[in-house]
């Protein structure tokens, strides 16, 4: 396998270390255990998932929502992987090697940094949009019953928040999501994707999405 590992390192222009290259070789050979989103634990790992949504692209980090048939998680790409992310599109299947996982308020967060790597793979990974509360990121669909005025607060920079009620759930929309909801009126059916729970409340953050609920069965 040593020659294959060296070929992987060469293929990525020396941007990955031997461990990441070895994991990529093993993944192609089907020698790695299949890890699903709902089985993520705080550790270093490799997994394959579908890119559901590409959110914030900043100079030093790119945030994505990835998923499989068991759920969704936030993926953060750092270092050279920020450049790799330019070639990734929503709907692509990707393999992540040598990532580390941390538990956050919004569920398990997958990080790929200096010694990790992502690559697109030709594999169909089922990742359906399903609705209902669960651990980590989840989706809700229902009638926009009430939309309260947007408020502003300052935490180093200005932030915006809009509180809404969808069916019987109170949801807090942050920043861009507070702007997005202005396209909808009370009585509309809306779908809110990739929400999370924090301190007993439900939140839509920068990686969340608000859509016309009629687009979903």
The first-level CATH class of the largest domain is given as Mainly Beta
**Mean pLDDT value:** 89
Return the CATH architecture of the largest domain.
Answer: Beta Barrel
Structural domain count: 2
Work out the strand percent: over 45%
* Number of beta strands: 13
Roughly how much helix do the residues carry, as a percent range?
10-25%
Classify the secondary structure makeup into a structural class. Answer: mainly beta
The biggest sheet amounts to: 5 strands, mixed, barrel
The number of helical runs is: 4
Radius of gyration: 19 Å
The CATH H-level superfamily of the largest domain is Nucleic acid-binding proteins
CATH fold description of the largest domain: OB fold (Dihydrolipoamide Acetyltransferase, E2P)
State the strand order across the main sheet: 1-2-3-5-4
Tell me the distance between the termini: 48 Å
The poorly predicted ranges are: none
Write the H/E string, N to C. HHEEEHEEEEEEEHEEE
User: How would the global form be characterised?
Assistant: elongated
Outline:
The protein has 217 residues and is mainly beta. The chain has four helices and 13 strands.
Q: Which characteristics define this entry?
A:
217 residues; mainly beta; OB fold (Dihydrolipoamide Acetyltransferase, E2P); 2 domains; 4 helices; elongated
Topology:
Elements: H1 2-11, H2 18-28, E1 44-57, E2 61-68, E3 71-78, H3 81-84, E4 93-104, E5 107-112, E6 117-121, E7 138-147, E8 151-155, E9 157-166, E10 169-174, H4 176-180, E11 189-198, E12 201-204, E13 209-212
Parallel strand pairs: 3-5, 10-12
Antiparallel strand pairs: 1-2, 1-4, 2-3, 4-5, 4-6, 7-9, 7-11, 8-9, 9-10, 11-12, 11-13
Helix pairs in contact: 1-2
């Amino acid at each position: 396998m040593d020659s294959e590992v060296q070929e992987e390192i060469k293929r990525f222009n020396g941007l990955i270390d031997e461990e990441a290259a070895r994991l990529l070789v093993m993944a192609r050979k089907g020698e790695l255990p299949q890890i699903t989103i709902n089985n993520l634990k705080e550790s270093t790992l490799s997994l394959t998932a579908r890119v559901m949504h590409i959110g914030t692209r900043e100079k030093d980090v790119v945030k994505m929502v990835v998923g499989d048939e068991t759920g969704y998680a936030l993926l953060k790409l750092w270092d050279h992987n920020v450049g790799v992310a330019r070639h990734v599109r929503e709907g692509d299947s990707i393999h992540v090697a040598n990532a580390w996982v941390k538990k956050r308020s919004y569920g398990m967060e997958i990080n790929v940094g200096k010694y990790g790597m992502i690559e697109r793979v030709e594999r169909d990974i089922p990742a359906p949009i399903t609705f209902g509360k669960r651990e980590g990121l989840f989706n809700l669909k229902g009638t926009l019953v009430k939309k309260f005025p947007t408020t502003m607060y300052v935490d180093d920079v200005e932030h915006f928040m809009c509180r809404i009620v969808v069916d019987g759930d109170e949801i807090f929309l942050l920043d861009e999501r507070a702007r997005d909801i202005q396209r909808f009126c009370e009585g509309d059916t809306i779908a809110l994707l990739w929400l999370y729970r924090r301190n007993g409340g439900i939140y839509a953050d920068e990686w969340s999405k608000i859509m016309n609920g009629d687009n979903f069965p």
